[in-house]
Amino acid sequence: MKKNIGIFTVTTVIAALSLIANMLIYQVPELKAASQNFIYSLPLVYLFFFVFTIVILGVLLTLGKKKKEQVGYIFLFLTSAKMGLSYLIARPILTKTIDDPTEKINFFIVFILFLAIEAYYTARLLNNK
């Protein structure tokens, strides 16, 4: 139980520190103007991916105790669902007519950050079998 709480705590700390760092980066005058035109605010993007990551990790930890041999498949299914929803949310960003790719790059970097967190903990779960 303490190990599971530690996973969620570390994930929360990483998400919070990443959000703060990202927001500080967008305080640079050249990037500040670009962030003004974002469709989704930085905290909203981080919240979306953070909630998904917490749900995925929670499901993996819960089902990993009962069905250890299915953890990899569950991870693939949940990550695919997250990817599909991420695409639906990113569609306005992808179809945006402004030539500045800053929001697109930021969205996918945040996606990859949280995907890396999920993959790391899934690998640890699979190695603990």
Automatic annotation (TrEMBL):
Keyword Transmembrane helix: yes
TM segment ranges: 7-26, 38-61, 73-93, 105-123
Organism superkingdom: Bacteria
InterPro entries, sorted: DUF6168
Keywords for this protein: Membrane, Transmembrane, Transmembrane helix
Entry keyword annotation includes Nucleus: no
Protein name in UniProt: DUF4293 family protein
Species of the source: Flavobacterium arcticum
